[in-house]
Every structure is written in structure tokens, then in C-alpha cells.
Write a structure and sequence with these properties.
- By secondary structure, the chain is of the alpha+beta class.
- The chain is 53% helix and 17% strand.
- It is built from 3 helices and 3 strands, in the order βααβαβ.
- It has a 3-stranded antiparallel sheet with strand order 2-1-3.
- The radius of gyration is 11 Å and the shape is globular.
Amino acid sequence: MVILLNDDYSTMDFVVEVLMVIFHKKIEEANAIMLDVHKKGKGIVGMYPWDIAVTKAEQVHAAARENQFPLRCIVEQI
């Protein structure tokens, strides 16, 4: 399971873009997840096989670094 974590600096637009580009979410779902991240402190992005989840987390961290945001996500095994 991939979970995005809230921070005080990443913009809502950037989080939505990450969800659409890396996780292939439609705009409505990306907005809903972004609002969970913003309001609840974290948002479940989805369930993926372990290797895919880790790769997507690395892609999120790389995109965040490129755009100078501290956006983080974690991968949890269930």
C-alpha cells in the first residue's frame, strides 16, 4: 500500500499532478486523495505489488526533489 504524507510546503496542485502522472489517477480521484492528505495528514494512494509500490514511492521522492518540495510517501505491507 502506498500512502502520501502531508507537509506544510508541497502545493495541492503538485500533489494532484503527482497522483495523476505517477499513479495514473483521474482528476476527481487525485483531488479526493489530495484532500485526505491535506485534512487527515495522509492519504492512501492505492494497493500495489511490493516492487511496484517501492518504485512509485521512489518516483514520488524524485519528482519532489526536482520540484524542491518535501513531499514524502511510505510503503506499507499488509
